[in-house]
Write a structure and sequence with these properties.
65% of the residues lie in helices and 0% in strands. The protein contains 6 helices and no strands. Helix 1 crosses helix 3, helix 3 runs antiparallel to helix 5 and helix 3 runs parallel beside helix 6.
Length: 156
């Protein structure tokens, strides 16, 4: 995590389309922000609008790019697999993989271990909370699937 970025495709290729950036930001503000309360909504909306208009040279630099990917990742975690297909025409697992790769590479490029930028810290916290939220959801599903007989081997 947050390692070398030499073998990774350019981050620009991992960003969603402009319309999807807007949707992901809206989903984040609706589904995640009420729980996390890490970002100032009006400022975030201005920053996302500025960044999405120029993904090749994002205003706010590497820390803003890390924050964008953390927002994408967190927003996707908040959706069901069906919602991902309906909204993005892609399965949830592939979207999570794509945006997790993006946030990890972006945090590495933002020099997370030495950065003093607030946006870099916000991106890291959103990412870590999102990971724990995803794991907690998986645990609850597994816990409840056993009594329902869903984890049984076909031969049992």
């Amino acid at each position: 995590m947050f390692g070398s970025t030499s073998d990774v495709e350019p981050l620009r290729l991992l960003h969603p389309s402009l319309s999807e950036i807007s949707l992901l930001c809206t989903l984040y503000l609706r589904n995640c922000d009420p729980v996390y309360k890490l970002l100032h909504r009006p400022t975030l909306q201005r920053q996302v609008a500025a960044a999405s208009s120029n993904l090749d040279d994002i205003p706010g630099g590497k820390s803003m790019e890390a924050l964008l990917f953390a927002i994408y990742y967190s927003a996707i975690i908040s959706l069901t697999p069906e919602q991902c297909v309906q909204m993005f025409q892609a399965d949830k697992d592939s979207l999570l993989k794509r945006y997790r790769q993006g946030v990890e590479v972006a945090l590495g490029k933002a020099d997370i271990l030495n950065s003093t930028e607030l946006r870099t810290l916000q991106a890291l916290v959103i990412f870590l909370v999102s990971i724990s939220r995803q794991r907690a959801t998986s645990f609850v599903i597994l816990k409840h699937s056993k009594p329902a007989g869903l984890r049984r081997c076909p031969n049992q």
